[in-house]
Design a protein that fits this description.
Elements (H helix, E strand, L loop, with lengths): L6 E5 L18 H4 L2 H4 L2 H6 L1 H17 L4 H12 L4 E5 L5 H4 L5 E2 L2 E8 L5 E3 L18 E5 L9 H10 L2 E5 L11 H7 L3 E6 L11 E4 L2 H9 L1
Parallel strand pairs: 1-2, 1-7, 2-3, 7-8, 8-9
Antiparallel strand pairs: 4-5, 4-6
The structure holds ligand BV8.
Keywords: Cytoplasm, Metal-binding, NAD, Transferase, Zinc
EC number: 2.3.1.286
Pfam family, one: SIR2
Length: 227
């Protein structure tokens, strides 16, 4: 491992798998249980808001019971001890990075957040959300989970682009590389001269875009890599 320079880390559902939260595209993944088009698009929310709220209520309750694992703690140590910035971008919507002491940019939103589709007001999500919930700001029954669905613009893209252009090392951990624009970050970092490392339980759709690979369960290989 190098000894200095900004490290940019992208995490995915694979790092929360060992905290008991489901991934999306493994054989028992969430998208194997329910189609994306029924619960993770704006059209799905218009068509059946109760079904979408039920899906995210179930995940918010599971995330609330989960504890950070050795991967989250190792990344928090790296952020604390590395001599240069360590920027964490996560596709995950749980709060396990924060629970381990990290700061992270949540590009796909957060289960802990609610947003009003009418006035864009944001507030902490209650444990259970329902279509009849009124926005505390404008009073309209237009509240939704603060989640970035397919077809919606992810959060923090300008900041992420800046980090991609000046990081010394780009690391992807626990992500299948199936979803854009996150899956394209490795190519962007590499064309700006960053070294690239993929840490994952198995090879992915974008493995060949990385220079280095560590294969194994994150909670074993990430602490070894960090320490
Ligand atoms: C957008 C909601 C406009 C939150 C999610 C090209 C450019 C831009 C867009 C597109 C494009 N091509 C196609 C698109 C459209 C689309 C897309 O990518 N579709 C895919 C399916 C082809 N993208 C979008 O719609 C995005 N928005 O494009 O806006 C735009 C245009 C231009 C530029 C910017 C914007 C919106 C994407 C966000 C959608 N919301 N979810 C939620 O419900 O959680 S995406 C969903 O997938 C989750 O957020 C999840 O985080 C994300 C990625 O999944 P992973 O985290 O990688 O999880 P997965 O299960 O797939 O993989 C887990 C991996 O872990 C596996 O590899 C496994 O081996 C590994 N693993 C398992 N256990 C372990 C492990 N590894 C280590 N240790 C273990 N123990």
């Amino acid at each position: 491992m190098q000894t200095s320079g900004t490290i940019l880390i992208l995490t995915g559902a694979g790092i929360s798998a060992e905290s008991g939260l489901g991934t999306f595209r493994d054989s028992d993944g969430l998208w194997e249980q329910v189609p994306i088009t029924e619960v993770a698009t704006p059209q799905a929310f218009v068509r059946d808001p109760q079904k979408v709220h039920d899906f995210y209520n179930m995940r918010r309750q599971a995330a609330g019971r989960a504890q950070p694992n050795a991967t989250h703690h190792a990344l928090a140590r790296l952020q604390r001890d590395w001599p240069d910035p360590v920027v964490l971008i996560t596709q995950n919507v749980d709060a396990l990075h924060e629970a381990a002491g990290s700061t992270a940019l949540h590009m796909h939103g957060a289960l802990s957040g609610a947003v009003c589709a009418a006035c864009d007001h944001r507030w902490p999500a209650p444990a259970l959300m329902a279509p009849s919930d009124a926005c505390p700001h404008c009073g309209k029954a237009a509240t939704r989970p603060d989640i970035v669905w397919f077809g919606e613009m992810p959060h923090h893209l300008p900041a992420i682009d800046r980090h991609l252009s000046d990081c010394a090392l780009f690391v992807a951990i626990g992500t299948s590389g199936a979803v854009y624009p996150a899956a394209g970050f490795v190519a962007e970092a590499a064309c700006h001269g960053a070294a690239t490392l993929e840490i994952n339980a198995a090879a992915t759709d974008v493995s060949e875009a990385f220079e280095q690979h560590i294969i194994g369960p994150a909670s074993t290989v990430v602490p070894d890599w960090v320490d």
